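Weekly puzzle thread! Below is a chain. First person to post its structure in token form gets bragging rights.
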Amino acid sequence: MPRWRNWYTHYLEVVAPQGMEVRILSWAQMIILLDGSKGAGKSSVSEILTKHLDKSVPLSLDNERRALKNQKRNRTELNREAFENIINKAKGSLGEGRNVIIDCGLTKERVSILEHLASDTKSKLHKFFLKASYNTLLNRVRFRDKTKGKNTDIERFDEVFKIIHSKELGDFNVIETEKLSPEGVANAILRMVNK
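Winning reply:
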């Protein structure tokens, strides 16, 4: 790592005034994966990372699924097509020299596909799992749904929570979001990816 980059990173972490908006320049092309249960903060963190990481493209499974024309298929089929769209968009963005931030529930198969994509495009892959307690996550989802005029589907929330929290996290960096704001989570991620 160049000496001046160490100084620059030190400046951002220690010298830069707190609250000062600082754009982090990407030094190597990267894919940042954000996984976690509903309410973990993946979308909010993705939005903040996109603002602070140069040449970044956010990709969300939820957004891709909502954009599909035929919504009458089951969730598994919709998710499969939405993930294929994420991969195609990620390939295009990486080919243009952009960084990619992916907000998505990740299975072993999806992680393997993304690992191959990172290898093929010579991109650095960073994996993060955003975690909080059941009650914190449920309260966040209820608040979000209420602002959208929706009722929270607790049965679906419980189903996703069980699936997500039964995963083996392997080489994922786990970030406890219980007491951190989305900005705090994003800052922790930026520090890790810029080491």
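Puzzle host: Confirmed. Bonus trivia for everyone else. Residues 45 and 182 are 5 Å apart (CA to CA).
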